Amino acid sequence: MSNLIFVCGISGVGKTFLLNAASKTLLDVQYLSAGKLAQKIEHEQDPNLRQLELGKMLARYRVSGSTLIVDGHLVFPKEGGFFDVPLDAVAALHPNAIIVVVDDCQMIANRRKNDQVRGRETIATPHLKKWQDREICLAIDYAKRLGIPSQTISARDTERFINVLELFAPHKGTGRLIEHEFQLTCAINTIDNRG
Q1: Cβ neighbours around 118 below 10 Å, total
Q2: How many Cβ atoms sit within 10 Å of the Cβ of residue 122?
Q3: Cα-only R_g, the chain
Q4: String of b and e for 38-59 (b: at least 16 CB within 10 Å)?
Q5: Fewer CB in a 10 Å sphere around the end CB: N or C, the chain?
Q6: pTM for the whole thing?
């Protein structure tokens, strides 16, 4: 079975921008939007069943030998709070890693406001922060429970995003070098954080 990397983050964070940039570098990677696939199963009313069906659909796209990157959400806003995608739905994807994309919530609010294509609703910055915090926590928790790696990456750090994709799914001839560079960067960051 091929590698599947789940890239998540709240609506408007910049996942599509990063994935478009990565697609220019990572030529042997297949990219799917969970949201577009979900439109095919709109008839299912139960959100838990929808997520499980989506997992089954995505599993069919996995082609041996290629890496599949799926973008989506772990948390959706709903009236009075949030809906968390169940762990079972994420497990049904059999991901090899989870990457959560984050950004400054005011930047996200501005992006959402200025997006003429998708017509996103206006959400106050404090609510975006709660949403993003919940997305991060769920991504880390689910990765731990599934026994897979996770990374949190800034939407403005295209180079690091591509390096982490390479780490999780090395592509022809470059993965090993980038993996070592990434491990060195992590070691340096760990030392810097210790003071």
Answers
A1: 10
A2: 7
A3: 17
A4: beeeeeeeeeeebbbbbbebbe
A5: C
A6: 0.76
For 28, residues 6+ apart whose C-beta sits below 8 A from its C-beta are 66, 67, 171, 172
Mind listing the pLDDT tens digit of every residue in the chain (195 residues)? Answer: 578 899 999 988 989 889 888 888 876 777 777 767 767 777 766 766 776 776 677 666 665 567 888 889 999 988 888 999 999 888 988 899 999 999 999 999 888 887 766 667 777 889 999 999 999 999 999 999 999 999 999 999 999 998 898 888 754 433 332 333 333 333 333 333 333
Q: Which residue has the tokens 């990765």?
A: 143
Helix (H, G, I), strand (E, B) or coil at 27: coil
Tokens representing 5? 């990397």
